[in-house]
Write a structure and sequence with these properties.
Elements (H helix, E strand, L loop, with lengths): L7 E3 L2 E3 L3 E3 L15 H9 L5 E7 L17 H16 L4 E5 L8 H4 L4 E2 L8 E5 L3 E4 L4 E2 L2 H20 L4 E6 L4 H6 L14 H19 L4 E5 L13 H12 L6 E5 L5 H10 L4 E4 L11 H9 L4 E4 L1 H4 L4 H7 L29
Parallel strand pairs: 3-4, 3-14, 4-5, 5-10, 6-9, 10-11, 11-12, 12-13, 13-14
Antiparallel strand pairs: 1-2, 7-8
Length: 359
């Protein structure tokens, strides 16, 4: 029986175990998007994970969603990430950058740009302007023209080249949780009537173009994508979910990607089983799916391995347990999730001050 502690070959990478540090917004970058020494410490502390996927990284200025979000938009941001990737590699780890284009989930007060999206439809809700302090209603995004959609897909490829230059082992496109790629997949944020909307083939077209451009830029074996089938974060709604994602997987399968990373939907066992059958490559599953009351544990990961997942990603469990792999391996106690107030923004407290277990 496959174990969380078995090794795994992911493209050119040899992972020592099957635990993945899931991407989690921590908002500790500088105001102008530079990674910091504390971020290098944070990721290096968790380098025993088989693979680290970074927090969401802005691939362009209009694509910035959150305050204090790191970027991969220019030479200064590339240089700021190099100490982070070096620290992870020095500790024996492997790290992908998650490229996260917010689309309509953003605000000019954060990025200095009007958000863009598939259609001029604002999300119902408020977006963060300062974590823990201020939110504002989501603005109406500017609808991309047909010609601009292709250029926006290329934004991911350009950021991926900079990620490799910064020392990342690969990239993960954020196609989940209501951000730009899922906005195109959705039926309420995407009201287009051109080739990027309407039918299932139209709604998956942007995702396929963005992934293809990125694979062409740095090699498909260095590219993954994160998806949340049926997820409704940031006010997205998807119709015909099994058919939509089966079509997407069918279009992506010939590319030879590193992996698909799925957030398990609540009560979606039948859907997930179908998606596992539809995807021929490496499948990463996040058992927790959307943030809820249940924090996933070792048993949850082993359940999904038995159901066909290849790798298991953990988010909140890694926050207060930088040595989560060894805690799972040895049965040492897992420290509870820390206070929500320390999740986003702030200083080193609740970020890099959690010690490893004394074995």
């Amino acid at each position: 029986m496959t174990s969380l502690f078995d090794g795994y070959r992911l493209g050119d990478l040899r992972l020592p175990n099957r635990l993945v540090l899931a991407p989690m917004t921590r908002a500790r970058a500088t105001a102008d998007g530079l990674a910091t020494p504390s971020m290098a410490t944070y990721y290096a502390q968790r380098a025993t994970a088989g693979l680290i996927v970074s927090e969401g990284v802005a691939p362009s200025h209009p694509g910035q969603s959150n305050p204090n979000m790191p970027g991969l938009r220019n030479a200064a941001e590339v240089a700021a990430w190099r100490p982070v990737t070096h620290a992870v590699h020095a500790n024996g780890g492997r790290i992908f950058a998650q490229l996260m284009h917010g689309g309509r989930v953003g605000h000019p007060a954060v990025s200095g740009h009007q958000p863009v999206g598939p259609s001029a439809v604002a999300l119902r809700g408020e977006v963060f302007v300062r974590f823990g302090e201020k939110t504002l209603p989501g603005p109406v995004p500017r609808a991309l023209t047909t010609a601009e959609v292709g250029a926006e897909a290329q934004v991911y490829a350009d950021a991926a080249r900079r990620a490799v230059e910064a020392g990342f082992d690969g990239v993960e496109l954020h196609g989940a949780n209501g951000y730009l790629i899922q906005q195109f997949l959705s039926s309420n944020a995407n009201l287009r009537t051109d080739r990027y909307g309407g039918s299932i083939a139209g709604r998956i077209a942007f995702a396929v173009e963005a992934v293809t451009a990125t694979a062409d830029a740095i090699g498909a074996e260095r590219v993954g994508i994160r998806l949340s089938p049926g997820g409704r974060v940031w006010d997205v709604v998807e119709e015909d979910v099994p058919e939509l994602y089966a079509a997407l997987f069918g279009a992506l399968a010939p590319l030879g990607l590193a992996y698909v990373h799925l957030l398990a939907p609540p009560d979606g066992d039948e859907l997930m089983d179908g998606l596992r059958r539809a995807w021929p490559g490496t499948l990463v599953v996040n058992p927790g799916g959307q943030i809820g009351p249940h924090e996933t544990d070792r048993a949850d990961g082993e359940k999904w391995l038995a159901r066909g997942a290849d790798l298991i990603s953990y988010g909140r469990a890694f926050l207060a347990n930088p040595d989560l792999v060894e805690r799972f391996r040895t049965g040492a106690p897992v420290r509870p999730t820390p206070d929500h107030a320390t999740w986003y923004g702030g200083g080193d407290a609740g970020f890099i001050d959690y010690p490893s277990h004394q074995y």
